């Protein structure tokens, strides 16, 4: 016989589950309980604003106190409080959310009123750290003569509830801390958690007192003990941009990052209420090209309640390089990153932030290009990283991504394509962009290219190899990058009908190649004989663009597996048309041949910054001795 009915969740085994699995970190209990106190206070203010509560609001500060002797933590508020019946409904019935009911009841009059809680489980997080929890409460609906309610539970399905004398409205929650959680009785630990989770909650929170110095009427300094308010209830991001000055934004940045000694380059104020709710301020910090950028600097909030600062996988990876605050009531108040990653609202918000960042950068580029160029070295890592990791951002960034030249000028990719069509097109119709990564180390190569009428870009970012690979791929083989020291110019940009004069016969070239190969390190150099100009160097050392690029990409993550472990190998190009080459061939003295080859090789190594240490010292010594003869 079939039957139907309702599954009933009993509380017999819920406390062990709460203690171990309700939240990923037990320290969350303080955030949850204070959030409940904020909700109770916000409800009262809402009731007062619509005329249902007609009494005096008075001081609405939330208080947090610890007592190491009694092993208790007490959280007190002067919000709406609860009647005995409400305790039965909101506390005794697990997961029945009073915040949810309040929002539904008053949404037509007051919207969602900034209520934080929605699931009704937050209170029970107290049992993750406490053996016993007590509630002392009285509702705003009760008269002065009516009694309040005391509720007590020791972490089992059994509870005790009884009436008590209580004059004022509001709620005191007393946690009797268990032996394995005594760290939370330490003042520094509670202060640390209040700073982390409750720093910007919308109701003042007091934890202890502090001494301040004031001047009396006669100008004499006197010390005064005042409540220590540990939060800023009105942070910059909840205000309208029109209400804030540049100094306000900078001061808020200093409040977020008191140990940061550099001001941000610029900022974006997010303020969206449709199709989702989103506020926040994002700051662009200076990112040094050769330093590991700081992550976990964006703080995620839900209605001013801290959720997490670990946003990898929640927002596009390149956005984690930014600093600042994101706040949305549409984000679930849950510290599980995997949960956040799968949330549809989080994905929409992430896409919107990417768009706003691109909008801001494009606006700066169009409206103040000179200033944008001055900031380029500080923001290029961020933009390049975004182009590599986020396709939508790449499409936008192509309009404002800059490519500086060794002369200090800046161009977009479209501008380079327009301006360099004459000398930089090879025989296949590719636009070949020459670039250098070290102005000093590649000076000779840069100068030779410039003397030939070519433009040389200066790309020194650690992401250069990755970026130019992507740009070449996206441009459908119509674009090619070549580092200026990767080979002779006529090989880097080969032209149609390019004829080369050769002084040596093919047999002489083969003999020359064999002679040089016999006298250099075969593990390090692959010898090639080329017909270059007689004015070019006798020997050139180059590194194949593909393998060098793969090694650079591997160092930054990416590239072919194992390419970072390949030994350093170079092409040693012998200029067949240089007089030294003829001298090597014509010499009948093998020792003289060896010295000439060694000297030219060392000169080429010096040009490539490969001759270092003892080898460089020995080379200089031998040349001084040669000059002295």
From TrEMBL:
Signal peptide: none annotated. It holds the Pfam family HSP90. One of its GO terms (molecular function) is ATP binding. Keywords: ATP-binding, Chaperone, Cytoplasm, Nucleotide-binding, Stress response. The keyword NAD does not apply. PROSITE patterns: HSP90. ATP binds at residues 32, 36, 77, 82, 97-98, 171, 337. The keyword Magnesium does not apply. Belongs to the heat shock protein 90 family. This is Chaperone protein HtpG.
């Amino acid at each position: 016989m079939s039957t139907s009915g309702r599954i009933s969740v009993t509380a017999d085994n819920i406390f062990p589950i709460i203690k171990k699995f309700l939240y990923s970190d037990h320290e969350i209990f303080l955030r949850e309980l204070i959030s409940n106190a904020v909700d109770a206070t916000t409800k009262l203010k809402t009731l007062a604003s619509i005329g249902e509560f007609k009494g005096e609001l008075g001081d609405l500060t939330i208080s947090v106190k610890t007592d190491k002797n009694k092993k208790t933590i007490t959280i007190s508020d002067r919000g709406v409080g609860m009647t005995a019946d409400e305790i039965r409904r909101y506390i005794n019935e697990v997961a029945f959310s009073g915040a949810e009911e309040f929002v539904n009841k008053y949404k037509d009059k007051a919207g969602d009123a900034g209520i934080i809680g929605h699931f009704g489980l937050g209170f029970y997080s107290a049992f993750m750290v406490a053996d016993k929890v007590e509630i002392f409460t009285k509702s705003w609906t009760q008269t002065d003569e009516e009694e309040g309610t005391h509720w007590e539970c020791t972490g089992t399905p059994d509870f005790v509830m009884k009436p008590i004398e209580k004059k004022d409205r509001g709620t005191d929650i007393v946690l009797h801390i268990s032996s394995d959680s005594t760290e939370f009785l330490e003042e520094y630990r509670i202060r640390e958690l209040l700073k982390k989770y409750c720093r910007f909650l919308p109701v003042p929170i007091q934890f202890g007192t502090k001494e301040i110095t004031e001047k009396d009427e006669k100008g004499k300094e006197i010390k005064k003990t005042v409540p220590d308010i540990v939060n800023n209830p009105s942070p910059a991001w909840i205000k309208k941009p029109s209400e804030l000055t540049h100094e306000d934004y900078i001061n808020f940045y200093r409040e977020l990052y008191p140990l940061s000694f550099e001001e941000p380059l610029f900022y974006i104020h997010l303020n969206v209420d449709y199709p989702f709710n989103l506020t926040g301020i994002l700051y662009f910090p200076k990112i040094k090209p050769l330093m590991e950028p700081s992550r976990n600097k964006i703080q995620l909030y839900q209605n001013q309640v801290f959720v997490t600062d670990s946003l990898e996988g929640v927002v596009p990876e390149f956005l984690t390089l930014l600093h600042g605050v994101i706040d949305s009531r549409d984000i679930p108040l849950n510290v599980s990153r995997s949960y956040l990653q799968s949330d549809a609202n989080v994905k929409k918000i992430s896409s919107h932030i990417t768009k706003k960042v691109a909008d801001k950068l494009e606006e700066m580029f169009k409206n103040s290009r000179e200033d944008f160029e001055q900031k380029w070295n500080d923001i290029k890592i961020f933009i390049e990283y975004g182009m590599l990791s986020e396709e939508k951002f790449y499409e936008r960034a192509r309009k404002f991504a800059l490519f500086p030249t060794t002369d200090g000028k800046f161009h977009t990719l479209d501008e380079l394509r327009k301006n360099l069509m004459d000398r930089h097109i090879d025989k296949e119709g590719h636009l070949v962009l020459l670039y250098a990564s070290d102005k000093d180390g590649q000076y000779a190569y840069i100068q030779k290219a410039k003397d030939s009428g070519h433009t040389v870009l200066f790309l020194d970012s650690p992401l250069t190899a990755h970026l130019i690979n992507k740009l070449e791929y996206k441009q459908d083989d119509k674009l090619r990058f070549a580092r200026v020291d990767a080979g002779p110019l006529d090989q880097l940009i080969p032209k149609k009908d390019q004829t080369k004069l050769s002084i040596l016969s093919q047999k002489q070239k083969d003999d020359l190649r064999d002679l040089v190969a016999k006298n250099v390190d075969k593990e390090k150099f692959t010898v090639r004989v080329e017909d270059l100009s007689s004015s070019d160097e006798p020997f050139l050392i180059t590194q194949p663009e593909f393998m060098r690029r793969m090694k650079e990409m591997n160092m930054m993550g990416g590239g072919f597996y194992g390419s970072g472990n390949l030994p350093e190998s170079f092409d040693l190009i012998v200029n067949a048309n240089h007089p030294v080459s003829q001298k090597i061939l014509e010499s009948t003295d093998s020792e003289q041949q060896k010295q000439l080859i060694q000297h030219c090789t060392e000169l080429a190594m010096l040009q490539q910054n490969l001759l270092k240490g003892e080898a460089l010292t020995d080379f200089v010594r031998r040349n001084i001795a040669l000059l002295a003869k």
